[in-house]
Amino acid sequence: MFKCVGCASLQSRLVGMNPVQIRAAMELYPDIRPTHRPNPCENFRCKRGKTCKMNDENKPVCVCQEPSECPTSVNDFEHVCGTDNKTYDTSCQLFATKCGLEGTKIGHRLHLDYTGSCKFILPCPESELVQFPLRMRDWLKNVLLQLYEHESMSPGFLTAKQSIRVQKIFESERCLHAGDHPVEILQQDFEKNYNMYIYPVHWQFAQMDQHPSDKFLSHSELAPLRVPLVPMEHCTSVFFQKCDADKDKLVSFKEWCSCFGIKEEDMDANLLF
Ligand SMILES: [Ca+2]
Ligand SMILES: [Ca+2]
């Protein structure tokens, strides 16, 4: 927030001045003018693709942003590939375009597919698709263990409850160390130490299920995990599509768990929160 050094003393000096003197003082120090009101759009949040504008009644409202009003990319890393297989200069441009298509089928289907310009992504063979959850499960477990280790240096990554859950995995001597393990080892470890994998799968779901927190993941809730992975792991898109077993465009908690081989009895969503 703007801080006017010396304003307080100035304002106290205004007391006792005649109107002309006050006007002169205010012209010298415009930031103490009583008309200096905060912009109502300043703290008014709009979803991606929209921007705040004042309507005819002088109230802040969210309207579609013009793609041409988006700041242009500074480097190639800002390009994104849409699910329409078109490269957009920035994610702002993609979401502004999507907003402009609101109410149409094309707009409904347009999502951010992955970061970077569109490129040819190899098709995912069934054999690799089977390996995907194995590697991802192991990775999720390692992410949590890393957060746990960080926690000792700079707390705030995990809640006390989460820390207790991860501590159990961290302290287990049987825990498979992070590394580039062959899929056979990952499979064996999953069977042997199944319990260690339940929490990381639950935890990742809860991390993403925030807008809203309804035990279903929408395309945009999955995006933070999916988007950076797609250009690196060519089975990502197919994997998440298959996760949505009933094809309602949402990945439910049960669908998510079964994608990662979590047993029915360990799919209690009440464990999440
Ligand atoms: Ca949700
Ligand atoms: Ca579904």
Please describe what this structure looks like.
With 273 residues, the chain is mostly helical. It is built from eleven helices and seven strands. The strands form three sheets. It has a three-stranded antiparallel beta sheet. A two-stranded antiparallel sheet has the order 1-2. It is globular. It has three domains: 1-37, no CATH class; 50-115, Wheat Germ Agglutinin (Isolectin 2), domain 1 (2-Layer Sandwich), CATH 3.30.60.30; 126-271, Recoverin, domain 1 (Orthogonal Bundle). It has helices at 7-14, 19-28, 91-100, 105-109, 126-153, 160-170, 183-192, 194-208, 219-229, 236-243, 253-259; strands spanning 50-54, 60-64, 80-82, 87-88, 112-115, 216-217, 251-252. The structure holds calcium ion (2 copies). Residues 244, 246, 248, 250-252, 255 line the site of one calcium ion. One calcium ion binds at residues 244, 246, 248, 250-252, 255. Residues 63-120 form the Kazal-like domain.
Key features of this structure:
Wheat Germ Agglutinin (Isolectin 2), domain 1, single chain, 8% strand, Recoverin, domain 1, mainly alpha, Osteonectin_CS, 11 helices, signal, binds calcium ion, disordered N terminus, three-stranded antiparallel beta sheet
Secondary-structure map:
Elements: H1 7-14, H2 19-28, E1 50-54, E2 60-64, E3 80-82, E4 87-88, H3 91-100, H4 105-109, E5 112-115, H5 126-153, H6 160-170, H7 183-192, H8 194-208, E6 216-217, H9 219-229, H10 236-243, E7 251-252, H11 253-259
Antiparallel strand pairs: 1-2, 3-4, 3-5, 6-7
Helix pairs in contact: 5-6, 5-7, 5-8, 7-8
The protein binds calcium ion (CA) (2 copies).
Family: Belongs to the SPARC family.
Domain Kazal-like: 63-120
InterPro entries: EF-hand-dom_pair, EF_Hand_1_Ca_BS, Fol_N, Follistatin/Osteonectin_EGF, Kazal_dom, Kazal_dom_sf, Osteonectin_CS, SPARC/Testican_Ca-bd-dom
